[in-house]
Amino acid sequence: MNKNIFFAGLITLASVFTSCEDYLDRVPDDKVNEQQVFTSYEKVEALVTDLYANCKGANKPIIFFANFGTAGVTDECSASSHENATPHQFHIGNYGPSQGMPASSSCGQYWWDLYTKVRKANIILEGVAKYNTPDNPQSGRQGDIKRRIGEVYFLRGYLYFLLLRAYGEVPYVDHVVNPGDNMDFAKVSFHEVVEKICMDADSAYARVDAWNGGQYFGRVDKGACLGLKAMTRWMAATPMWNGGKFPEDTRVFKEEYGYDASRWEAAKKAAKAVMDCKKDDGSLRYTLYTKYDKNDFNDVDGKNTSNSKVYQRLWQMFYDMESIEKEWVWFVTKDKDTGWSGDVLPPSQGGHARQRPLQEQVDEYEYIGPDGYGYPVYSKRAKADGYDDENPFESVKRDPRFYRDIRYHGSIYGNKQMNTAEGDDAVSGSYLDQASHTGYYLRKFYKDAWDRGHGGHTINGPAIWRLPEIIYIYCEAVNETSGPNQEIYDLLNQIRERSFMAPIPPEAKTDKKLMNEYIQRERRVELFYENHRIWHCRLYLEPDDAEQLALEKAYEDANSWPYPKTQRFSHGMKPVEDPNGKIEVNGKHYRMERFIVPDNRTFNSPRAYLWPIMQDELKRCPSLVQNPGW
Questions:
Q1: Is 398 left (phi over 0), alpha (psi -120 to 50) or beta?
Q2: Residue 343 has pLDDT above 90, yes or no
Q3: DSSP per position, 294-357
Q4: What is the pTM of this model?
Q5: How far is CA 385 from CA 176, 211, 379, 521, in A?
Q6: How far apart are CA 229 and CA 238, in angstroms?
Q7: Which neighbouring-strand residues pair with 441?
Q8: DSSP per-residue codes, 138-200
Q9: Across the strands, what pairs with 375?
Q10: Residue 353 in contact with residue 430, Cβ under 8 Å?
Q11: How far apart, in whole angstroms, are the C-alpha atoms of residue 505 and residue 280?
Q12: Domain ranges of the chain
C-alpha cells in the first residue's frame, strides 16, 4: 500500500482474509484466515500487542522526528543539521501537501500512518465481536479477552487524539471499510471527534484493570483511560477550538468553535478524575515522586559533581521505576538508548549537540526573590532583586529545574566546567556546526555526570502524559471557570516544592491573569523537551495573540526582551571576555551577551497551526477540505 494513500488503504486490508499474506501488516502464523485468527485468543492477543507497538511508536517524545524531538521546531530549542535536519525543515516551512512531510522523519505519526493503525483497531474490534473470541485459556487469566478489547478501544481513541492534535478536523471512521463501500469521506467537527474519543475511553475504562503491576505494567489501565479523556477535553477547551481568533479561518465547522465555558468545566472534571483515580486497594493511583531530599546532589557514581546544582531527585524522576509507576499516566518504553545521550553531548565529550536550547526557553526559568517567592527574570522587580543579565545564571538563584535542564557557560558537569568562549564547545555561528549555535547545551534526561565511559542505559521517557500535566489542566480549568483560589495555588506549589522551587507569590491567589501566567510558565518549564510545546503554542494561538504580536512589533534587537512567543524568533547568549565580568572560567572573566541565532526561523500563519493533508488524498476524496492556509 502506498503510505500516502489513506482512502485506498482503508479497503486494502478489508479483503485480507482471502489472501492472508499480509494480515494486519503482520502474519501471526503462516497462512491463516479470518476465522482462525479470531477464534484464537493467542492470535488476537498478538494482534493487540502489535497494535500497542504501532501506537506507542507513533508518539515517542524525544525522537518524534526520527532522531530528533519536536523541541527544535519550537522556541524551546534550535536543531543541528544532522540526519537531514528534519526540525530545521519544519521551522523554515519546507513541507507541504504536494512535497509531502519530510519522509525521513516518519516514525508513524503522520496522516497515513495513523489511519493505518485506526484500520487495524477497527478490524480487531469487529473480528472479536463477529467470532466471539474465546478467553485466555491459561488458568487464572479469565477476563483477558475483555481487557484486550478495552485496550483496543483506548488505542483507537488515542490514535484519534494524535490525529486531532496534528490535523484538527478529520474524518472519523469506526468501522472496517470494504470494497465497494462509499468512499466519500469528509471531515467532522473537532468537538464531535472529542466526544467519540471520550466514548472509546469510557468503553476501555469499563474493561481494563485499575492497576497493572509486574509483567503487565505499561498496559492500559483505568488511569490511562481517564488521562485520555482529560487531555482530549483540555484540547477542546483551549483557544484554537474554544473562542480564540483563528487567523483567516477556513475550518469547515468554524461556527462551532466559539467560546463555551462548559468545555473548561468538562476539562476540570476529567482532570480531577485522574487526580482522584484509585487502585483496587483504595490508594491513589498517582502521586508526585519525592524520593531523595534537598541535601542529595549525588550523580551516577554517588558523588556531588555538579557543584550542588542538580538534585538527584530531578534526574532520577525520569529513571527510577518508583517515579514511573507513581506519576506516569501514559508512556512509551525504550524511547531511545545511550545513542541519544551521545548525540546530544557537547563536542568536548564526543557529541554534536543535536538540540540546542534557546534563550526563549532559558528566560522562562524563574529566579527566587529575597522574599522567598519565584518571579520571572523579565519581571519589573527582577533587577532590583539582584538579577543581572550579564551574570544570569548565578547573580540570583534560578529554578533548580534550570540547572538540571540546561548546560551553560560556567556550569559544572562531572566536575568539569563548561566553556562556551573557546575550545570545542565555543558558541558557533551556524546550526551546521557541531558546537551549539545558541550558547547552550541540553542536560535534561541525562543521568547526571553520565558520559560515554559509563556504559549503556535505556531511556524510558519522557512520559507522554504524567501527573503534573494533569494538575496543570485542572488548575487552569478552575482558574478559567471560577477564578484562582487556595486549592490550585497549593497544587501548583506542590509541583514546585517537589523540584525544590520556591512558591508562587500569594497575590496570584486573587489575580486570574497572574495565576494563568504562572500556570503557563510552570507548564513550559516542567514539560520542557517532552513533546508538548509544539502543540501548546498552537492550541493557545500564541503566534497570533495580540499581546505577543505587540511584543513582536516593539522588537528591535536581541536586548528587546522578553521575546514574543510567536515562534518567529531565536536567541542565545554568548560569553564576552571582560575583566569586570562576574563569571570566571579557566582563570578568565566573562559577562554574558544576548544575540540573534541565525537559523532563519519562520511561522507562517495560518498554515503552520495544522499539518497539511496530502494532495493525493484530496484528489481521491474530493469531499475532503484542505486545512487552513494550505
A1: beta
A2: no
A3: TT----TTSS--SSS-S-HHHHHTTT-HHHHHHHEEE--S--EEHHHHHHHS-GGGT---SEEE
A4: 0.94
A5: 63, 48, 10, 20
A6: 14
A7: 407
A8: STT-TTHHHHHHHHHHHHHHHHHHHHHHHHSSB----S---TTS------B-HHHHHHHHHHH
A9: 367
A10: no
A11: 38
A12: 6-64+108-251
How far apart, in whole angstroms, are the C-alpha atoms of residue 604 and residue 537? 14
User: What's the burial of 520, exposed, middle or buried (CB within 10 Å: 0-12/13-18/19+)?
Assistant: middle
Which CATH class, in words, describes the domain spanning 6-64+108-251?
mainly alpha
Q: Are 297 and 325 in contact (CB under 8 A)?
A: no
Q: What is the pLDDT of residues 503-553, one digit of tens each?
A: 999 999 999 999 999 999 999 999 999 999 999 999 999 999 999 999 999
Among candidate residues 578, 90, 601, the one with its CA nearest the CA of residue 359: 601
For residues 537 and 376, give the distance between their C-alpha atoms in angstroms, rounded to a whole number: 19
Do 210 and 275 form a contact (C-beta atoms < 8 A)? no
**Residue among 110, 127, 179, 125 at smallest CA distance from 157:** 125
Q: Which 8-state DSSP code applies to residue 601?
A: -
Distance CA 431, CA 451 (A): 23
Please report the beta strands in 500-543, taking only residues with DSSP state E, as ranges in sequence order.
none
Distances (CA, A) of 295 to 66, 207, 221, 316: 38, 44, 36, 15
- Each residue of 292-338: pLDDT tens digit? 999 999 999 999 999 999 999 999 999 999 999 999 999 987 777 77
CB contact set of 250 (below 8 Å; sequence gap of 6+): 625, 628, 629
Q: Does residue 411 contact residue 309 with C-beta atoms inside 8 Å?
A: yes
How many C-beta neighbours within 10 Å does residue 389 have? Answer: 18
